[in-house]
Structure formats: structure tokens, C-alpha cells
Amino acid sequence: MNLTMPIEVTERAKARIAEIAEAEGAPKKLRVAVLGGGCSGFQYEFALEDAAKPDDMVVADAVLIDPESLPLLSGSVIDFKDELIGARFAVQNPNATSSCGCGVSFSI
Question: Which of 22, 43, 60, 66 is the most exposed place for a label (fewest CB within 10 A)?
Fold first, then answer.
């Protein structure tokens, strides 16, 4: 796993985070974390937060990543998808060797 690869946030994801912040009337950032669990070993967790914590990495002034999740997300693309089955934030992770059908769980 290459820890030096940058993390990208798509324009769609940045626009959706900005829409949410505008609707709530306050600045918001999307926290993307990797937790143990899920059907493939790891799972993504998404949450909206007002501000970064001191040790967070801030990507594209829109996404927060904690130091423990950072190596597992190295080289990833954070996107927003609006499909027939629903709208959601999604991660395209080059470190994942397999993932579940819903795209929330993965293994390395």
C-alpha cells in the first residue's frame, strides 16, 4: 500500500457537501473514516462535521480523514453518486482487493 498517493475529491462530491452546508446554514465537512467490520473486513463511515480535529487531514477543503484511516484511503477518489437506487457518497479505493455489492465494505 502506497501511503504517499493523494486523495481526490470529485467536483460532484464537493458540490453536494456545499449544498448540505447551505441547507443547514453552517459550514460542513464530510468525514470519511474506515472502520473494522462489514461483510468484507473494513467498512466506510461517512459523517458531516462542523470542523476538523487537530490531527485530521483536510482534503480539498471539504473532506476530513483521521490519521488511522488515511493509509487505507491513500490514492482513493471520494465521489457523490445520484442513481436510481439512491444518492450516496462513494469511495473508489485502489487499495481494496475486493468489496461487497453495496460498495460500503471492502478488504485489503
Answer: 22
8 A C-beta contact, residue 15 and residue 83: no
State the Cα–Cα distance between residues 41 and 104, nearest whole angstrom. 11
Q: How many CB atoms lie within 10 A of CB 33?
A: 17
The boundaries of the domain holding residue 17 are 8-107
In the numeric block, which cell numbers belong to residue 80? 457523490
C-alpha distances (whole Å) from 92 to each of 33, 75, 95 are 14, 9, 9
Reported as a single tens digit per residue, the pLDDT across 55-108 is: 999 999 999 999 999 999 999 999 999 987 788 999 999 988 766 555 555 556
Question: Closest Cα to residue 94, out of 82, 80, 81, 77?
Answer: 77
- The alpha carbons of the chain give a radius of gyration, in whole angstroms, of 13
Beta bridge partners of 24: none
Grid cell listed for 30: 464530510
Work out how many domains the chain is built from and give that number: 1
State mean pLDDT over 41-52: 91
